[in-house]
Amino acid sequence: MKKAADYRKILGMITNEQVLSLEQAAIRIPSSSFKEHELADYLANYMFDMGLEVEMMEVQHPTQPDKKSRQPIGRLKGTGEGPSLMLNGHMDPGVEMSGWTVDPYGAKFEDGWIWGMGAHDDKGGVVAAICAVEAIKRSGTELKGDILLCPVIAHKYGGAGTRALVKKGVLTDYCINMEHSANTIANVCVGIVMIRIKTRSPDLFFRYSAEAKAKYFNAIEQQCEIMRRIGTSLEPLPPGGWLRFTPHPELPGFPTLTFDTIHKEHYYHPSYTGMPTRECEMCFQIRTVPGQTLENIRADVKRLLEQIRADRPNLQYKLTIPASGEDDPWYMEPMDVPKDNPLVVALVDGQRIASNEEPSVGAAMRIGNVGDGNILVALGIPTVQYGPGDIRIYKEWPTPDERVKLDDLVIAAKAVAYASYRMCG
Ligand SMILES: [Zn+2]
User: Fold this and answer.
1) Nearest-CA neighbor of 16 among 91, 138, 151, 128?
2) Taking the alpha carbons of 200, 206, 212, 217 in that order, is the dihedral positive or negative?
């Protein structure tokens, strides 16, 4: 009974005014990828004033060594007798698009809606998590396990901030990855792998010998043939085709691919530097389903390319998976955390209490998306993706006029406060 009283006390600490004011403050501080420092400082001070242990951590840009940003880690200490929980959400919003009808940094609040860049992706999630921990702290409730508040940088760079936490050994037993899911509990999410294929052909011009021509297969046409055999962007790959997978009931339509880049220089091209290159490079990505491994995907692509070569012996290719090598920031494993995992159960109960509605668990509201949580699940840390913000209100996502309901933010803060206390209390 003591616990029930604690929950009520904690949840009673969360107010609309507190959530709205932090959300508006966060939206008003621009924080695009690797320019999050001002928001990082603001949140660090906020967490320090709450009474958390706060440390600031620098994170280097993955490809530009002179570029860096920073992210705070706030810790609400427990006695060390219980499991620890990370609340992780990214500070960098999407790219600013044209078409906004309000100031993207104005944080307009009208008819219960808060408008602005990152309103729910992912400042809303970060704010809900901070308000949840603030409520626990202010209630004076003792915890057994630590709660770590991790507003991270550079989600848009493949989770560079979260990868930096991992590298530094900042790990917990469980994690809630705050990501807009219309407050549904996403225990299943797709993964992502980028694949690079270079093709090569001998230099051959309009006068050629029959012998040279017999060995020729234009590098661009090689890619055309490869792409034809791989499939069509945004068309689900069929089971039983070249890519092996078991369809996942939560992820209909996946795996799916998109072709992302194709490039070859020639004298017709404005970037032509004097010599046509022999190589044509193409990159595509696959959003994968649980059960697909890097090794299997590598073997599948290789087998397909060898089949093409059996038909067209002049095919010359070089395959790289993941596209940027072993440390590819855009390689993320798919995730599938059992519904009976204590974290899922705790968050379901928290969501039910906070919303007075039956929560929904599953992939539906995160379908096709990856979150930094994918990185943590791959390390064996049970993680769910959860947060306020329903992208079904927009025609497409990403979008201008991003907005979130204050009520949904408050529900998320309460649900996370409940789950955090239940896991760590
Ligand atoms: Zn996000």
Assistant:
1) 128
2) positive
Burial of residue 235, with CB atoms counted within 10 A of its CB: 0-12 exposed, 13-18 middle, 19 or more buried: exposed
Q: Do the domains 191-320 and 2-189+334-424 match in fold?
A: no
Note the pLDDT tens digit of each residue in 396-405: 888 999 999 9
CA of 124 to the centre of ligand 1 (A): 10
Ligand 1 midpoint to CA 159 (Å): 10
Tell me, which fold does domain 191-320 have in CATH? Answer: Alpha-Beta Plaits (3.30.70)
Residue 371 Cα to ligand 1 middle (Å): 6
Q: How far is the CA of 180 from the centre of ligand 1 (A)?
A: 7
Q: Which residues pair with 58 in a beta bridge?
A: 70
Q: Which CATH superfamily is domain 2-189+334-424 in?
A: Zn peptidases (3.40.630.10)
Query: Could you tell me the distance, in angstroms and rounded to a whole number, from the CA of residue 403 to the centre of ligand 1?
Result: 14
Q: What pTM did the predictor assign?
A: 0.94
pLDDT 10s digits, 44-82? 999 999 999 999 999 999 888 889 999 999 999 999 999
pLDDT value at residue 278:
84
340 alpha carbon – ligand 1 mean position (Å): 25
